[in-house]
Amino acid sequence: MPEVPIDTGNTAWILISTALVLFMTPGLAFFYGGMVRAKNVLGMLMQNFFAMGILAIIWSFIGFSLAFGNFGDGGWIGNFDFLAMQDVGQTGVVLGKDTWFSAGAGLTLTIPFILFCVYQMTFAIITPALITGATADRMKFRAYVVFISVWLVLVYSPVAHWVFGGGFLAKMGALDFAGGAVVHINAGAAALALCILLGKRKGWPTTSMHPHSLPWTMIGTGILWFGWAGFNAGSALAADGIAAQALFNTFTAASAGMIGWVIVETLKDGKPTTLGAASGAVAGLVAITPCAGFVGGMSGTAIGLIAGAVCFLAISLKTKFGYDDSLDVVGVHLVGGLVGSILLGFFATTKVNVAGFDGLFAGGGADLLIDQVVASLIVLVFSFVVSMVIGKLIDLTIGLRVSEEDEEIGLDLSQHAENAYS
Amino acid sequence: MKLITAIIKPHKLDDVKAALKQAGVVGITVVEVKGFGRQGGHTEVYRGAEYVIDLIPKVKLEVVLDAADADRIAEVIVDAARTGKIGDGKVWISEIDKLIRIRTGERDSDAI
What we know:
The complex is a heterodimer. By secondary structure, chain A is mainly alpha-helical. Chain A is built from 15 helices and 3 strands. Chain A has a single domain, classed as Ammonium transporter fold. Chain A has helices at residues 8-33, 41-68, 113-130, 141-163, 168-172, 180-198, 214-232, 241-269, 274-288, 299-314, 317-321, 329-347, 367-397, 404-409, 411-416; strands at residues 3-4, 92-95, 107-109. Chain B is an alpha+beta fold. A 4-stranded antiparallel beta sheet of chain B has the order 2-5-1-6, covered by helices on one side. Chain B has a two-stranded antiparallel sheet with strand order 3-4. In chain B, helix 1 runs antiparallel to helix 2. Classes of the chains: A mainly alpha, B alpha+beta. Chains A and B meet through helix 8 of A and strand 3 and strand 4 of B.
């Protein structure tokens, strides 16, 4: 790979973004942790924190290479060029030179390549962690650890390659600025597969299983919102105007998402809730993720508003279809990711980012919209099917779900021999 | 001696305490409980779905007193705790066999 000098401004920003995105996983831990019953809070926290443990090792050893090796091949998977961090150095590099990417110019990283690796690592950590919300209260800890470890290699890395690594979806013309498909549709589809495999919690859906600590959830929401600046604006991989545009879009989409959700919630259920406000903000953030560096004006606000309203309605699907998606990962991340990825086909404009395309409203016709729909469906189906297979294999060997007694006692005591609050 | 037990709405505790003090009651014990009565709880809508809430938070109050005062104090509690809406609670009176004050060893009526 050709080496290029690093730009200190870009490097400083991405160093910070890496820390911001990593912080989102503990944020997610508390966002979900507050929503479960007290007897399961440590179970939830442990799953999310442990993801930070195991996945960092797997990513550095093999995940990064499978995602970003063979950059720009327009294909299905990376390679072993960067296995065990070989050739991942401290200079900037040009990835995918002489491939289809940027008509042969490839992707020039003016940040240390190893920084690119650790930045992407934080995405690889949080994506499987998202699934914990759907499997809450009933998954065996060791089954969870095996699942996310295998999933990182067999699902996340390939999908990351297809979109971020210059693989076939990127070559096809689909856009995904920070991971609407790679992170949210991907994790959302896996969550759906697992919660179907696991089955319903005892007592669901008629017994009320209210959040035991919404203050935790609100702290988690604040951390996620804050960290998302690194998630979206950091995906510009530079400290430039696109990053600034992405930051603006991200924050306004979060705000609009909250408004959209709370309005529909109040009309339908009668009262605006803190949980609704938090969920709405997250829905907006999820939807803007694929769009962040490709849209401008009030588009981010519009996308957030729509996502907030649509995701609120989407969470009723689980009672309608009978799948216990405990903390609405499907309703917020899968649906939110789909909403954002598809709306990108409408709102994208090269006025904001010359490296993007023009969507329907910018006069680009339906080409981008069609690519967005196709790419979203491919990721959805792939993730759902492979997750189902991995989950089933684990179920047949070590078992996915805790025993009825352990579920009654709670994960904290049954899986970890601990009590959160004495 | 008698034991008065009352299940009341949590937000009526202050009114009941004040009324009991004014009626001359010297000591009470209070504990947070959950339960339901004839209406069997209620349904609520949260996050777009309906739930049955059958155990509602209440406060249980206990007072130990002379048999002669039992009926009067029971009425004091009833009047102070009533809101007129569903879920106001219940009061019952039971018999106590023995009463001892721990610090001094006083028995029965002397221990009230």
